[in-house]
Amino acid sequence: MSEVTMGPAEPIVSAHFEDRAQQNEASHIGMWLFLAQEIMFFTGLFVAYGVYRYKFPEVFAEGSAQLNFVIGTVNTTVLLASSVTMAMCVYCTQTGKWKGQVSYLIATLGLGVTFLAIKAYEWKEKWDHGLIPAIHWQPHGLEHPVKAELFFSLYFIMTGMHAFHMVIGFIIGSVFVYLCWAKKEYGPNKYLPIEYFGLYWHFVDIVWVFLFPMMYLISQ
Amino acid sequence: MSDEHASHHIIQPKVYVINAMVIVVLMLATVAFGKYPPLEFAGGSNGINFWIALGIAIAKMGCIMAFFMGVKYNTSLVKIFSVAAFMWVLVFFAFVMSDYVSPHSDLGSPYADVEVQGAYPLPK
């Protein structure tokens, strides 16, 4: 156990709950309801993807071939590593390890920024090749130049919304870094906010787990 | 597992490390199947590889949910809520795709093979 005092000395149980277990279960359900609406949000995009991939499989295969699957694999590994560091941050919070808590949280955000930087490089590449729908659509060498714009619209919207969620996660995570480092707000008796931030981060990882094969690994 | 135990369960780091290694192996399998020449079985021109890749993605999601998100150690009620959202996804897909795989579902569409009075031309 760290010598640093982390969080309150006793767990705080609100008056309308029977005990800490019931309070924890209720707050878990609340967080999963939030994640459920996030899942519903992304489902709309995935269904649109599914419909148009079913209707134009050769167009999607051609579009996927324009993407660099090595970069996609690297990005997947980076995001997975960030999930591990986030889970370790939760563990350190639960066991009162202050240095580990702050270090792993900063590592998580650092890996998240790495993911976004690699994504920005990819998008810059797409701009150079004229593959930005509506804004800068000048493809070269594509067999289906008109319909390919549909694939890339879905690509940029879906990866863009995913990146937007990463940015939101980074902002919230930065607040948590301050609260953990300067205020020592969270510890063994108050770790649920860190755990729920972890749930959000893992959810963003899950979205990428589906995005990666659906965008980058469509067989020719 | 009692509710009290579930509310205080602390997952050990080695579980996270093993889980990460399993997910990395599944990721490499995903890449391998994605780049392997497709077999014409089900799913159109993408063959069986699409369904294998989707199955691997669902397995990875299961690993992340069970251990990183700790659903395995939550109470039954929390498990129901966490699984319910993904059940909704399946229902959504089933209803929408049942429309599009039906014959002549694109009736009147500019991309339809069937000529319908009033359909307007668009570039193919």
β-strand amount of chain B = under 5%
* Helical coverage of chain A, percent range: over 70%
Our count of helices of chain A gives: 6
Shape of chain B: flat
Question: Any idea what the radius of gyration of chain A is?
Answer: 21 Å
Low-confidence stretches of chain B: 1-6
Poorly predicted ranges of chain A:
none
Largest beta sheet of chain B, briefly? none
What's the total helix number of chain B? 4
Taken in chain order, the helices and strands of chain B follow as HHHH
Largest interface in this structure: A-B, 56 and 62 residues
Q: Ends of chain A: how far apart?
A: 54 Å
Sheet-strand content of chain A, in percent, reads: under 5%
Structural class of chain A: mainly alpha
Largest sheet of chain A: 2 strands, antiparallel
Main sheet of chain A: which strands, in order across?
1-2
**Residue-averaged pLDDT of chain B, rounded?**
79
SS elements, strand count of chain A: 2
Brief summary:
The complex is a heterodimer of chains A (220) and B (124). With 220 residues, chain A is mainly α.
Structure commentary:
The complex is a heterodimer of chains A (220) and B (124). Chain A is mainly α and 220 residues long. Chain A has 6 helices and 2 strands; from the N terminus they run ααααββαα. Chain A has helices spanning 20-55, 57-65, 69-94, 98-128, 148-181, 192-216, and strands at residues 131-132, 136-137. Chain A has a two-stranded antiparallel ribbon. In chain A, helix 1 (20-55) crosses helix 2 (57-65) and helix 1 (20-55) packs antiparallel against helix 5 (148-181). Chain B has 124 residues and is an all-alpha fold. In chain B, 61% of the residues lie in helices and 0% in strands. In chain B, helix 2 (13-35) packs antiparallel against helix 3. The longest helix of chain B has 25 residues, at 76-100. The radius of gyration of chain B is 22 Å and the shape is flat. Chain B starts with a helix and ends in a 24-residue tail after the last helix. Chains A and B meet through helix 1, helix 2, helix 3 and helix 6 of A and helix 1, helix 2, helix 3 and helix 4 of B.
